[in-house]
Design a protein that fits this description.
By secondary structure, the protein is α/β, with parallel strands linked by helices. About 20% of the residues lie in helices and about 25% in strands.
């Protein structure tokens, strides 16, 4: 009989191990890439701390072949990890308000054909014209569940976001809250 530890790391841990964080960071903070803390990447944005991103991705439950939206894609690190999780049959779209971050992350993602990033439209959450999405990852804090993003989910889709300091998984049927408390930059 085999247990979970006999099968090796979970898919999220494997994808993170294959995606060096330093590759997605500005040169000024690359020396801190291995630290388990959020790192400033400029323009009021951060690259999430690895343990937080792992928790979010495990809670999100991305499957091979999924179409995923990465809201607040920042450095592109989460977009790259998501692209590995969905595999060649899936796709990931990252949206980010700061154009310089989009340019930098697009360069870092250039060898991943199933991942792309673009500048978010100010005042529009997500990417309604590109949906629906099987999964949505939101890497910015909010005090309410944005209905605009829920509307971009498939019928059986799920979204994970930081809601009032807690990680929440939202589906059309309801929501589930993960243990722990988290801090993120605000959703805008």
């Amino acid at each position: 009989m085999t247990g979970p530890s006999d099968r090796g790391p979970d898919p999220v841990s494997r994808a993170m191990a294959q995606t060096p964080r330093a590759h997605f960071l500005p040169r000024s903070v690359r020396r801190s890439a291995a630290q388990d803390r959020a790192l400033e990447i400029g323009y009021g944005s951060t690259c999430s701390q690895p343990s937080t991103l792992r928790a979010m991705l495990q809670f999100l439950g991305v499957r091979p072949g999924d179409r995923v939206l990465d809201v607040g894609s920042g450095s592109g690190w989460s977009t790259a990890i998501l692209a590995l999780l969905v595999g060649p049959e899936g796709s990931v779209l990252g949206v980010e308000l700061e154009e310089p971050l989009v340019r930098r992350s697009a360069d870092a993602l250039s060898r991943m054909p199933n991942a792309r990033v673009r500048v978010a439209v100010p005042g529009v959450l997500g990417s309604p014209g590109d949906g629906p999405f099987d999964r949505i990852l939101v890497s910015a804090a909010t005090s309410t569940v944005p209905q605009d993003l829920v509307d971009q989910l498939t019928e059986d889709g799920a979204m994970v976001l930081p809601l009032r300091g807690r990680l929440v998984r939202v589906t059309r049927e309801g929501r589930e809250t993960a243990p722990g408390h988290y801090q993120f930059v605000p959703l805008r």
